[in-house]
Design brief:
Blueprint lengths: L13 E7 L2 E7 L5 E7 L2 H17 L2 H8 L3
């Protein structure tokens, strides 16, 4: 039988969209508050689309599954 949302510890990863002198990027921030991954994007639309996808994965996946999916430590 599947797990109820209340049975699973919350995923503590988060996502930040940034725009700086070099352009747009999306950072995945780990539970400790440190950036663990960054993806450079061509424009704002790509950055926001990618960030939205990652946020969905934060909501849907356990931290272990999330780390595996994104190749994080």
């Amino acid at each position: 039988m599947g797990h109820r949302a209340s049975d699973v510890a919350p995923n503590r990863y988060s996502v930040t969209v940034r725009r700086d002198d070099l352009g747009w990027s999306v950072a995945i921030v780990g539970p400790g508050g440190r950036e663990v991954s960054r993806r450079v994007c061509a424009d704002e639309v790509e950055a926001r689309t990618y960030a939205s996808t990652v946020r969905q994965h934060v909501e849907w996946l356990s931290e272990e599954a999330f780390r595996g999916y994104y190749g994080l430590g």
